[in-house]
Amino acid sequence: MNTSTPLPQRAFGSTGIRVSVLGLGTVKLGRNQDVKYPEAFAIPDDKAAAALIASAKALGVNLIDTAPAYGNSEERLGYLLQGQRRDWIICTKVGEEFENGSSRFDFSSMHTRFSIERSLERLRTDLLDIVLVHSDGNDLDVIYHSGALETLARCKEQGLIRAFGVSTKTVAGGIAAVELSDGVMATHNALYADELPVLNFCLERNKGVLIKKALASGHLENHGISADDSLRTVLAHPAVSSAIVGTINLQHLEADIRTAHAATAFDQTCLPDSALPGRASRSA
After folding, report:
1. Cα(159)–Cα(155) distance, rounded to whole angstroms?
2. pTM score > 0.85 for this model?
3. Cα separation of 220 and 38, whole Å?
4. For residue 143, is it within any domain?
C-alpha cells in the first residue's frame, strides 16, 4: 500500500484534537473472554502487537482506543507505545471493570478519579487525550446521577485529560451526553442506524463522535454486506470524527484504510498532518 498520503484526519468536535478517520481498537490486545465477535481469537504476543501498532502508525492511524475493561490492554499499550507517545491520540474509559471473566460497573466520583489516575500510570503518560464513561446501558442515570461526568470535568480543568464524553447505548443518553461533554462514542453501521439522531445532534453542536461497531463486530457477512460498504456508510456522515476498528489482522486493517481513503477523498473536513495544530506536551 502507498503510505505517502497520510490517512485523513477530522476534528473531534471543538476540542482542538484531530483524529485519523480510522482508530485502532485494542480490546483484542488484552481480552478474548466474553466478547461478541463471531470467531474465537488468540491474544497476540508483544512482537505481533508491536508490529500491528507500527503498521497502523505507518499507514496514518493516530487514534488508539482502549479501556480498563479490555483486560490488560492499557498496561500493554503503556509498554508498546514507549518513545512514541506524541504520535498517538489515546482514548480510554472509566466505569467498567472486567474481572474474573465478567464485567462490573462503578460510576462513582471516587472510582472515576481512581480510574483516571490508574490509566495514567498504566499508559505511562501524564495526559489522557479523550476519556469516555463506559456506560452499562443506563445512560441517563449514569450521566445525571453518578458524578462521573462532573469528575471528568474537574480532571480536564486540572490538565489530566484533554476531552471527555460518554460511550452511550441509547439515543436519549447520547443526546444528554452531547449537552454535558465534549462528545460521544455511538454505534453506527450499515445494519444499525438507530443512533443517527445522536450523530445529527453532534453535528449541530460541533461535538466529537467516535463510532463503535462500525463493522458490526464481524457480523456483516451474515447479512450480505461488505465491510467496505459499512465503513463507507459510517464515514459518509459529517459528524463522525473517527470509526474504531478492533482488528488484529494487518490485512484487514490495510483494507479498511484503503476504504477510508476512498470514502474521504473529497472530504474538506480532512487535513494532512502538516496542517495539524501543535500538540500538548506529555511524557514519552
Report:
1. 6
2. yes
3. 10
4. yes
Backbone angles phi, psi at 129, to 5 degrees: -75, -50
- Give the CATH number, domain containing residue 29: 3.20.20.100
- Say if 281 falls within a structural domain: no
Q: Using CA of residue 1, residue 10, residue 78, residue 100, what is the dihedral sign?
A: negative
Residue 70 lies in a domain: yes
Say whether 189 sits in a helix, a strand or coil: strand
| Strand 96-99 with 183-187, pairing | unpaired
> What range defines the domain where residue 61 resides?
9-267
Query: Which residues are bridge partners to 183 per DSSP?
Result: 165, 208
C-alpha–C-alpha distance, residues 31 and 134, integer Å: 16
Catalytic positions, written as ranges: 70
Whole-number pLDDT of residue 188: 97
Each residue of 72-97: b (16+ CB within 10 Å) or e?
A: ebbbbbbebbeeebeebbbbbbbbbb
Can you tell me the distance from the alpha carbon of 141 to that of 146, in angstroms, rounded to the nearest whole number?
7
Answer yes or no: is 167 within a domain: yes
Please check whether residue 18 is in contact with residue 29, taking contact to mean a CB–CB distance below 8 angstroms. no
Task: Give the pLDDT confidence of 32-91 residue by residue, as tens digits.
Answer: 888 877 778 899 999 999 999 999 999 999 999 999 999 999 999 999 999 999 999 999
Residue of 275, 258, 249, 262 lying closest to 2 (CA atoms): 258
Total domains, the chain: 1
